[in-house]
Amino acid sequence: MTEHRGRVRLEIDGPIATITNDNPGKHNAFDDRMDAQLFEALGELRSRTDIRAVVWRGEGRSWSSGRDVGSIGTNKTDMTHHELMTRGIRGIQQLWEIDAPVIVAIQGWALGGSFQRALLCDVRIASEDAMFMLPELSHGVIPDTGGVAVLQQIAGPGVVADMVLTGRRLAADEALAHGIVSRVVPRDELDTTAREMAERIAAAPAVSVKLARRVLSHLSRPDVRASMEDELIYQTFLNRSDDFAEMRAARAEGREPRYRGS
């Protein structure tokens, strides 16, 4: 039996495109291969004028559990850490260059960088079992995909500080109350609801949708770009910091870490 390898699928059905996270055995955790497929899909959508709405969904129990924990802080490419992060930032910023709005349909886990990628999209809806979390600090790094800036704009500094600094898990009803998602629906209605929303957007005059999104982006985008530039610099520093090296050494040796703040 052939082992299933995670992938990102892009399907076009008339004016509506669907991006699917397809690595259900690992709760749709992303690896380098899936990142490349996602960025390729976004690049194709960016170049098309016939797509009027995009749905981003996930197979199985979760939308995406973020990055494979074992790959955090590792680099198996010939690129420097800074170059690798720059490629990731440029790849995901293609979301902003697609003419069509992107609706994210979230079930189960939306963790870490994947949760942040969802925050960069236009609309998020969730099933009743959805859970949101930013666990980066427990792995010795910081959130670095721009989503924290969006989260602060949506929910305010108190909520984002709690989630970033303590790794607090947020349930679907709390995410709805804070405006992080706009709708919560039963699990078996999630895909149908997302499709109905996409069809409604696709039926509206294309120029009206485009200009409405442009107004919304002008309200928020500059702060998000600035945040991503800071994250790029700070994450690169963290990757070479003494504390990060100490965290990895302590875990490998089964002892308590001795952090020095450097």
Number of strands: 9
End-to-end Cα distance, whole Å, is: 48 Å
The CATH class turns out to be Alpha Beta
* Count of the domains: 1
Ranges where pLDDT stays below 50 over 5 or more residues in a row are none
Strand order of the largest sheet: 1-2-3-4-6-9
Order of helices and strands: EEHEHEEHEEHHEHEHHH
- Please work out how many helical segments DSSP would assign: 9
Shape: globular
Please tell me the overall pLDDT. 93
Helix/strand class: alpha/beta
User: What is the alpha-carbon Rg in Å?
Assistant: 18 Å
Biggest sheet: strands, sense, closure? 6 strands, mixed
| Oligomeric state of this protein | single chain
Describe the model:
This protein has nine helices and nine strands. It is of the alpha/beta class and 262 residues long. It has a single domain, classed as 2-enoyl-CoA Hydratase, Chain A, domain 1, CATH 3.90.226.10. Strands 1-2-3-4-6-9 form a six-stranded mixed sheet, sandwiched between helices. The mean pLDDT is 93.
